[in-house]
Amino acid sequence: MLTRRHFISTSTAMFSLPIAGPVLAENWPTTSQKASWDAQVTPTNYDPTTSNPWGLQPRFLPQRVAARDGLVPGDIHVDAVARYLYHIEEGGTAMRYGVAIARGNLYEPGTYTIRRKVEWPHWTPTASMIERNPEYAEFADGMEPGPTNALGSRALYLYVGNRDTYLRIHGTPQPRSIGGRASSGCVRMVMAHINDLYPNVAVGSTAYLYSAEQSVVSGS
């Protein structure tokens, strides 16, 4: 079973600069609307390794790390203890990002397939989510895309076989939750960070969500 012991910090990575000006969406956003929102959620002069207007602990900023031999490039591994997501790259490295995981027993360890990915998705809470959080009832018919949408700027949809689990790896309009247990089951990321990750994740990739028991303190 794979754990945090497979990853060792080695170097950092740079990503792209933001683009301009927000507008409102109706139904599915246009390319220009998505570009405008991307600019809105991306810090000025964005450097993923140092930009931190969200006040995150520095360890939750993106970092390139070494990955153990044998891990499959393209796969995702989520450490429930350290609150890290690792995206395995070619050449023995991985990009590591800080995440928030689900509250209490809502976190569901397992092996999932990413069968869908969406830029600026809609969000519709499940009946169980509305039961736990009655304030979600106003969104029972869905929430339009945009910077305040619960799924944020990007979403990776987790399936078991052909069954949608309703679990997602997604951006969040609540970046200060990163590092904690905050969601109703999903894995949350800072929107600027998942925007960097998103184009590098292929549909059909595997996502491993580890339990606390399967995670260990990293070692050199």
Q: How far is the N terminus from the C terminus?
A: 18 Å
Query: Hey, roughly how much beta strand do the residues contain?
Result: 25-35%
| Overall residue-averaged pLDDT value | 83
The largest sheet, given as strand count, sense and whether it forms a barrel, is: 10 strands, mixed
Low-confidence stretches: 1-26, 216-220
| Helix and strand sequence | EHEEEEEEHEEEEHE
Count the helices. How many? Answer: 3
Radius of gyration: 17 Å
> Globular, elongated, flat, extended or rod-shaped: what is the shape?
globular
The helix content, as a percent range, equals 10-25%
**SS elements, strand count:** 12
Instruction: Return the structural class.
Output: mainly beta
Strand order of the largest sheet: 1-2-5-4-3-12-7-8-9-11
3D architecture notes:
This protein is mainly β. A hairpin with a 4-residue loop joins β4 and β5 (93-98). The chain contains three helices and twelve strands. The chain has a ten-stranded mixed beta sheet.
Question: In short, what is this structure?
Answer:
Helices cover 10% and strands 30% of the residues. The chain has helices at residues 31-40, 127-132, 191-197, and strands spanning 7-11, 63-67, 76-79, 84-88, 93-98, 101-102, 110-119, 154-160, 163-172, 181-183, 187-190, 206-209.
